[in-house]
Inverse folding.
């Protein structure tokens, strides 16, 4: 990498270089996979429960929103995790997380333990990284050789 | 960075390139910033936290004895480590400490809450752990004091 700092222990440089390509897929797998897990619970689990939840927080026609959110989480989550159409998947996820923060988590304050904005906010920052960088060298996008 | 994909919309590429130096920096600053309030809760009792002695008692209760030692160590990693991550100073040593701490964090939250974060599960801890590993491997990167100083572990 150009103009990177001089290493105090140069021998570590090789280790860093070996592991550098792994860091992005790790984040992608977790940020996307975890979201897909949420979506899976809505779409293939308790869709009526999710619909009641959405109506209770002010989304009329909760069943429609449950489908929209569930499918968005499940599909975009998987795409992000495997790095296919990475940027196309990252956009809706960020929009969803921001909507979730504004319409729901905001009133619980900051702390993640009490459903506050902390986690969705950090999640959005992680996904934003992939909106900007794309899937990276270890992704299906790179395998295919084309991306948005 | 070498291009490993051909863009569908080449006109967007300059915008990606312009944003790229900021994305990882934002992640580092975000990671650090998110830890600081937790440390301030534990060390100084700010933001409705227990403060240093209350926190020590909590860690004792949770089985991390002596709580005064481990509670304070965790508080310091969160508060001072978070601050250093925001600045990008000593990024790798801080990230190493955070990685070790978050392995325990994942274990603890997973044991008590399962996976989903709305049940206080492990998923947030896992994401923080992975982001700590990112900076353990990559160092401070752009706009960090490490790079400004030109030396890094």
């Amino acid at each position: 990498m150009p103009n990177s700092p001089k290493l105090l222990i140069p021998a570590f440089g090789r280790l860093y270089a070996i592991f550098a390509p792994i860091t992005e897929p790790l984040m992608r797998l977790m940020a996307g996979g975890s979201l897909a897990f949420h979506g899976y619970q809505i779409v293939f689990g308790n869709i009526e429960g999710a619909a009641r939840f959405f109506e209770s927080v002010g989304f009329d026609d909760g069943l429609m929103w449950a489908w929209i959110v569930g499918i968005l989480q499940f599909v975009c989550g998987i795409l992000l995790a495997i790095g296919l159409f990475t940027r196309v998947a990252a956009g809706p996820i960020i929009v969803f997380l921001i909507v979730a923060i504004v319409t729901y988590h905001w009133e619980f304050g900051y702390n993640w333990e009490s459903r506050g904005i902390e986690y969705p906010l950090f999640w959005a920052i992680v996904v934003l990284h992939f909106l900007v960088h794309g899937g990276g060298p270890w992704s299906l996008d790179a395998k295919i050789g084309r991306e948005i | 960075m070498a291009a490993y994909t051909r863009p569908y919309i080449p006109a967007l590429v300059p915008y990606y390139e312009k944003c790229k130096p900021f994305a990882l920096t934002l992640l580092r600053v975000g990671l650090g910033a998110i830890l600081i309030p937790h440390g301030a809760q534990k060390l100084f009792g700010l933001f409705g936290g227990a403060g240093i002695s209350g926190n020590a008692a909590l860690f004792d209760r949770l089985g991390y004895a002596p709580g005064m030692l481990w509670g304070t160590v965790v508080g310091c990693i969160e508060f001072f480590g978070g601050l250093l991550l925001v600045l990008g100073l000593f990024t790798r040593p801080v990230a190493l400490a955070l990685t070790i701490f978050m392995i325990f964090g994942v274990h603890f939250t997973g044991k008590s809450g399962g996976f989903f974060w709305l049940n206080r599960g492990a998923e947030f801890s896992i994401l923080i752990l992975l982001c700590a590993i990112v900076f353990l491997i990559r160092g401070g990167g752009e706009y960090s004091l490490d790079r400004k100083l030109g030396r890094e572990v």
Summary: The two ends of chain B are 23 Å apart (CA to CA). The mean pLDDT of chain B is 90.
